Amino acid sequence: MSKLTHFNQAGEAHMVDIADKPASARRAIAAGRIVMQAETLELIQQGGHKKGDVLGVARIAGIMATKRTSDLVPMCHPLALTHVAVEFETDPGAGAIECTVTAETTGPTGVEMEALTGVQVTLLTIYDMCKSVDRGMVISDVCLLEKSGGKSGHWKRD
Length: 158
Prior knowledge:
Elements: E1 24-35, H1 38-46, H2 54-67, H3 69-72, E2 81-91, E3 96-107, H4 112-130, E4 138-148, E5 155-156
Antiparallel strand pairs: 1-3, 1-4, 2-3, 4-5
Helix pairs in contact: 2-4
């Protein structure tokens, strides 16, 4: 196992120096889900929610979150993202919405945290917009699915 890079020799937290790392194309895909009552999912799908287009607002929130990740996660470097996509898939049988976020950049450090942050904020936005009709929603299974680029190369969840 590799050592934890966000700690110096004295065990103090620090920001990793990426000045000498070569820039490369980097991509990360993360996903998660929110489970809700069937009626809540139907309301979202039919566009009948009084707050408006739930998935449209959640998509914008997720994109904005990827761009602000370094403001939220203390040791993250600010990145110039080149592309962010937020996609949804509904699962009526499970009463769930699956969210997938893809983040891309060309630079000296990866975009895993940006993709993961995008998923979390997208799902939190769905919760926020629908909590008046369903406070029992559950956000779960947030994880990195795949990453590419950089020294460690390609990784994909089994």
